[in-house]
Amino acid sequence: MAAHIVIAIDGPAASGKSSVARALARRLRYRYVNTGAMYRAVTWLAVSRHVDPKNADAVHLLLDATRIECGFDAAGESTILLDGMDPTAHLSDGAVNASVSSIASIPDVRRTLVAIQRASCTESDVVMEGRDIGSAVFPETPYKFYIDATLEVRAARRQKQGVADKIEARDKQDSTRPMSPLIIAEDAHVVDSSHLTIDGVVGEIIGRLKLKNLALPEGI
Ligand code: DC
After folding, report:
1. I need a surface site. Which of 10, 128, 167, 191 has the fewest CB within 10 A?
2. How much distance in Å is there from the Cα of 218 to the middle of ligand 1?
């Protein structure tokens, strides 16, 4: 059972969940955990060490030999260091986008990162975003949201960011892997963000949290 409140935000690539989760965490004064960044960080490590992301044994050895330090910055956003190195600047590289779903399908990688994710709510309430937060990392939380948008809208968002990212292929790989695939948790509230602003989605989530009687900071 989580020690603090966990608000789970899941959804496919480029659905807007990072922007929504960050904005929601700021409004509620919770910490924000970006689990995609953790899978991306491990992918960056494998790519930069010339380890084949599809070779589960080699990735396992690399992970075993690496010191992973996760924490929070002054703004309450999750951070990750690998052997003391900060991979943040490389997390959206084309090479990382191309291999992150392969890395994320390796059970050892998931077990290691999920343990870190579960430990990250021991000191404070968190908004955590990813693919399996409501279905596998914190299935007991009553606060689950699934942010969706049409493929066209999501592809246009990525294009605007100017990064190479085959989101349809990534979604397919993420939703068909055997271990904790991307699914809509049974009790998740689905928000279609195709025609909503970030504030619009955050507003809908807050409305839902109020209906569930979650105590919110004054003025919200
Ligand atoms: O949210 P994102 O696009 O930054 O995530 C990158 C990849 O990481 C995504 O394609 C699949 C993987 N991922 C995952 O398997 N489980 C999570 N909880 C978060 C991300």
Report:
1. 167
2. 33
